[in-house]
Amino acid sequence: MSHLLADHPSSVPIVYSPFMAVIGGGPGLGEDWHFGYGVALECRSAVFNCVAGERVSSPGALGSYPFWDRSKNYTGIVARQGAYGTLIKGINIERSIQPTIERWAGCG
Hints:
Layout: E1 34-35, E2 40-41, E3 55-57, E4 65-69, E5 74-78, H1 87-104
Antiparallel strand pairs: 1-2, 2-3, 3-4, 4-5
């Protein structure tokens, strides 16, 4: 499992990332996420300085957002279907209710 969640492009520059860039007519997150095998390694920083695999997800182009917070031991999914390129909206929905989710999961 740890190999799947490892930071695979750590030594290769990421030329484009929808999490950093402006997409779908709106701003990206301005965050430097990296990638494992089939998952995004989330990092809420402009420079990747996070523990790889601590929080992983696989945002969909239409805004769905399955996530796994390994540090707090919970998973979830925001199920939505928006226009193509609205993946940031699903992430922002989860972030807006994250404190409630963490209280409910007993980790907030």
